[in-house]
Amino acid sequence: MFLLLFLVPAALALWPNPHSVSYGTSALILSPTFWIHWASTTPAPGDVTAAISRTMAELYTDNLQRLVVGRANADLPALAYANSLPMIHLEIIGNSPIKSIMAEATCILGERDESYTLTIPADGTPGMLQANTTLGLFRGLTTFSQLWYSSGGVAAIFPYNSFFPGSSMIYTVQAPVMITDTPAYPYRGLLLDTARNFFPVADLYRTLDAASYVKINTFHWHITDSQSFPLTVAAFPELSQYGAYSAVQTYSLQDVQDIINYAGARGIDVMLEIDTPGHTASIWESHPEYVACYNEAPWTTYANEPPAGQLRFAVPEVLNFTQQMFASVLSTLPSTLFSTGGDELNTACYVNDTIFQDALTASGQNFSQALNTFVLGTHDTVRAAGKTPAVWEEMLLVQNVSLGLDTLVIVWISSEDALAIAEKGYKMIHGPSDYFYLDCGGGAWLGNDTNGNSWCDPFKTWQKAYSFDPLQNLTASQYSLVLGGQQLLWTEQSGPENVDPIIWPRAAASAEVFWTGANGPDGLPRNSSEALERLHDVRYRMVARGINAINLQPEWCALRPGECNLV
Amino acid sequence: MFLLLFLVPAALALWPNPHSVSYGTSALILSPTFWIHWASTTPAPGDVTAAISRTMAELYTDNLQRLVVGRANADLPALAYANSLPMIHLEIIGNSPIKSIMAEATCILGERDESYTLTIPADGTPGMLQANTTLGLFRGLTTFSQLWYSSGGVAAIFPYNSFFPGSSMIYTVQAPVMITDTPAYPYRGLLLDTARNFFPVADLYRTLDAASYVKINTFHWHITDSQSFPLTVAAFPELSQYGAYSAVQTYSLQDVQDIINYAGARGIDVMLEIDTPGHTASIWESHPEYVACYNEAPWTTYANEPPAGQLRFAVPEVLNFTQQMFASVLSTLPSTLFSTGGDELNTACYVNDTIFQDALTASGQNFSQALNTFVLGTHDTVRAAGKTPAVWEEMLLVQNVSLGLDTLVIVWISSEDALAIAEKGYKMIHGPSDYFYLDCGGGAWLGNDTNGNSWCDPFKTWQKAYSFDPLQNLTASQYSLVLGGQQLLWTEQSGPENVDPIIWPRAAASAEVFWTGANGPDGLPRNSSEALERLHDVRYRMVARGINAINLQPEWCALRPGECNLV
């Protein structure tokens, strides 16, 4: 016989890693009468009450055994004499008025307070979760729910499990736990494109659930594109009526509000994007007079993918239409952020377009001047609604639009472009394709492309995303321009059928990069070997919660931290 | 206003393309009293009756509108005056005894008869499906179910829909249809690895359903590997008791029979693989005395991935054990095929293994001779059970084992290796990683591998798989050695959560390559532009049937054949 000892990992499942954390080595079980106590005299807002209920449910339904060889069996001896946690108190500190999670999550980016402190004593006395805001409390509840495991089916054979007859114990092995936490960056997002392929509301709900589990705080909703226009616009209902794939493949006004509210209750702000003036071929379906080069062949000349079609931005009526469309949508959005898009504008589209060229001539402007007029005009509309515009990097770096300095610029083409944005003094959101594009590596999708490859091959692994340094290439004086970042899913080859496994747990990587920052709570630089142990746990817990997150490795590896590293 | 005309595609949704087919241009609706009539005097076997029931259910639940702009609306005018199909007769021709689908599907590879003829008149008279076997009839039913669409929710506004009050019409637009069909190759498989990560029985059922939709006829079940041993072996229950990830992550004797029966009833033979003598570290958990270099570090020296561990094949007791294990399993398998594996044998594993080296010395054999003894010994056991052994290519090309000429050799390392196999005169199954590996392109999965890539990057698109020529590199005299081929999913980064989208509809590519052969029914070489129209349909129909098959393109492209080609 051979014997081999495996080290039981000390790290458990917190993700993203908190700013500061200390663990003990005591087992602690949840009391059968455990409850979460709202300790303020002011009644809890409705979304806080709902979050408490969800947390309670997760504790009892995750049913996740610890990822070690032997699973929960390894912990049973320690549980025999464990104290039990009777409750945690939730306390808002300070004197600010208590608002809903959603109100806190949708306020101005720099003013959100997501910090909290969490203390779980080992001695059987109540725990304490404190924060300045309900949003902070919600982040703390998310952390709290990640501390606990189930003794699973094995509990039945264990005599000490008298608390839960016929059930399993919920426990942690690392009490006491003391956590002080606050995010390193205010913007931690996820982009989903619902235009190339459509996603029913239920799929967005599930995606928002998963995002909230790793403290992502912004859903960058790329809701329209050249392929379809599923967004119902009150002022222009014909846009989705003709531009959506079908009547059922639309987001009604109520759907959008439902999604915003669902996200808000989970600490997530929705930054809607109506991409302009490119990526607008679907507007041709209802307003052909506003769109140049619709589906012109060969598409390669007029667009990065079929179908071609872009707004005739030099036509005054087109700016007027776009402003009215934006205004109609903006009035329904609680967020202070709105993206007007601006990527991949194709100039060839306009060369032979008489309507565009005539308008340009009539305006006395050149191409750049007319684009400037259009973009700044739409941004005026965004600001008039009390919001801050965001744009893709080309608006600044390629088209040289004289954007207001409040504008957020989103990096996507290359991580190296951050420096140029910083040098121009703009705030930025990192979403570089070389680290964060979730769709890369899926192969060519054009019909007759036998040997083609994904344009941004290879696949961007979680390790690659995790290695991203938000400050790379920047000088210290530019650091404050970095608001955060996000992973992104463009959906040429995606839909409801693969949205879970292509996003999760990968998108947890950037969630930790931008929450935890450069160093882990141990003060050492983040590293993927340490992170993997926790990320396995994130994945298994997501699966327990109904998210089809993929296996990162064979389960053999998940149970044996460090055994499946590159050597 | 601009106007743009789209061509309505002539090709509909048959996949794989039949050997010979002719379509008309008449619309034909299913009669509200449509039924499938078993025309023989001998009662239908149970799995035929079940297949008829499933086909009827699919007709009424697929609810798939045709993939054209305007969807079913485009067809409504033609449906107004359409005849309706009252029934099809199912007829076994010839005088052979009528057997179950499963009996026909599991008989000797070269003797299976999957041919059928299907005639659907346009004039409202009954259709006819004829075959020599129930297996042929089942293939014909599969084809039949692909002909039909639903007029969907729009039917309600259409006055002619009096047949189905409150429901939609089921119709085809291409009657009459006359099909004569038979596969080009007898082996059309799909490999799934259930050892690196475990798949519950329900996931295998769903995978088998999808495979049957595209006439795949072999499930190559890689059931054990170094990471886990989920297979319950009656003679050695300890193998799964200790070698499985957990007690619930096992396949019981009944599970295996259930899966075999489920597959058989769908025209699919199950070729089980117990990989030996490599890929056997999980046997160490119950029989450490049989396994060399278990989890030795660094694993890179001893295995292609962790954990290392291989059978001490030079030890007589190990051969004896393996033969008894195989015999115990083989006695439960109806298939005439069984794979003993044989890939990636690592020689370093044995260099310092005293037990192995002592046994080698005692045997008076060198390494190759001992391996020959082991492999041929296990193949004797396979043949004694009345079955034909299959092996991975290294057994022949690297280890030079003197395999019996009946042995099937499976290509995997490179498509170029087919020639060497043929030159040695062996029959082969194509599964080359450069065309058919479904796991390629998923990125590095080792824990600390920030910039690593999938070993077989890039992603193998359906177009790439579809471009495979089974006879490439071979001379005409060697063509008969090609039995067929398969796409393969190794599950380092897969599990139940992504098994559908990573396999489907991609694995339909090889299903058509090996069913349809080099030329389509139009006599022209298969090409991916033509195929894509039909493959979209395969994908949408799979989704309708509960398979999470991915979008191959934006839906805009799916509705507009040819518009999203590389130009």
How would you characterize the overall build of this protein?
The structure is a homodimer of 567-residue chains. By secondary structure, chain A is an alpha/beta fold. Chain A has 2 domains: 20-181, Chitobiase, domain 2, CATH 3.30.379; 187-494, TIM Barrel (Alpha-Beta Barrel). Helices cover 31% and strands 18% of the residues of chain A. The first copy, chain A, contains 20 helices and 16 strands. In chain A, the strands form 3 sheets. An 8-stranded parallel barrel of chain A has the order 7-8-9-12-13-14-15-16. The first copy, chain A, has a 5-stranded mixed beta barrel with strand order 1-2-4-3-6. A two-stranded antiparallel sheet of chain A has the order 10-11. In chain A, α1 (46-61) runs parallel beside α4, α5 (201-213) runs parallel beside α7 (253-264) and α9 packs parallel to α12 (367-384). The two termini of chain A are 27 Å apart. The relative contact order of chain A is 0.12. Chains A and B meet through α16, α17, α19 and α20 of A and α16, α17, α19 and α20 of B.
